Amino acid sequence: MVDLFYDIYYRKLMELSSGVRPRDLGMGSVIRGVVDYGAVNDVWKPLGMPNTSRDFRAVAVDGGVQELDFRNGASLVIVRAIAINNVGKPPTKDVIVKLSPVYAPALRWVLLTHVESSVAMKALEDGGYEFLLMDGSLYAKVTALIHELILTKGFLDLYFVPDVVDALERIYQLLVKARELGVKVMFVSKDTELKVFKDYVLFKTLKELILNEGPLGNIDKEVIDILNRGIEWHSVVWIRNYRKRLLDLAGNYNGSHRDLVRMGIRVILSQSVSDINVLEELAKVQGVGLGITRKLLIGAMDAYLNSKSLTNIDRLLRLINDRVEDSLGLRSVDEGGELNPSDYIRRVRRVLEEMPRILMFYVKPSKNDTPILVEVPYYEWPMFDQRVPWKLFFDKVDVSDHVNLLLSMYRDSIHYNKLLWLAHEYANFGSDQFLEYAIAAIDKLKIPAKRRFAMAYNMDMRGDVD
Questions:
Q1: Which residues fall within 8 angstroms of residue 240, CB to CB, at 6 or more apart?
Q2: Among 360, 205, 368, 209, which residue's Cα sits nearest to residue 275?
Q3: Is pLDDT of 34 > 80?
């Protein structure tokens, strides 16, 4: 069909582009000030030429997801994942097909997390690997799953709490299996919105700037409290009270470094500025082309959990128990029978008590490319162990093999890891593939698709029973 709107779109796009200028939050000035001040100017370390003489035996996992909505309100969620290796073994792959009487957006990534972890475990059980590469952030996955267990984003999300428990437990089981087999696990993210290093670097600098202004007795203790929270948590700007106090500090601070402090707070508050933006600027200022950051050991640093004192596992489990009971009550209508909440709580408790901390660092693979996030499980300390700070520079762990493997598989910004890229190409749903899956589902399940889906593909999607 002829597009009757493109001329209007293009005209308005030109109008928009003529009035848009790149946003300048003063980040370059802030980073230069950070380096000049010397508070945290050792974040990046240059790397020499990588040692690519050794061929590490590795397997990489990625997944894809699509859903088909039916006219009766049900949804068919299709998730698949594949493990690609460099040792000549056939790929390991699996598909989850879940017909749900209701649908919530969280179900997509919850099931995706589950199938990726399951495929990774199957691949490891075949044996012979030194490294497992997983796409995405381990910290983000675990924290998002915990949030799903305690936060009601929508009423229908309650229905899928057992699926969230399954996914969280599956990640934990994967890490346990890898440790048992002596496989080194790396979660790798090329594009991440995390602000862990950003908060640590900027809040630490602001704190030292303000503390060095004058006698400690003249410094507002509330100001130091919020700066400490910014250093320790991720991310305090999600909490309204702390966000307001930061704005007050920016408006009222009149020390000799007030411009740098105000610009720093501006960058902190901006949700469009992530670790990658700050670290890229820092690398430019420090003249680092090929490099690695210091290693940050992180635990349960989530701002919401800490602000609600939910890093105490017993307190956290009480909230989770309420959600599990509500969910099982809803599901019993469709599934029948009695479902036992205590079993789910037992499983979650074990995960929370034993989930390892995470060693987080970034690798800059070339002068002209942005940093890559790498996360490695650190089994010596549990994630929720409050005896250790939630964020701690921890450089004694040797990750030279991890870095050499990453750099040996790097090609360019798109093909940043040849195994993960190939896994993504296989796992991601193309439109033609999804249409084939959808037609098969409608034919076999005899459930009509939603009208808009049928219109989009100009097909008869009724699914009428003969």
A1: none
A2: 360
A3: no
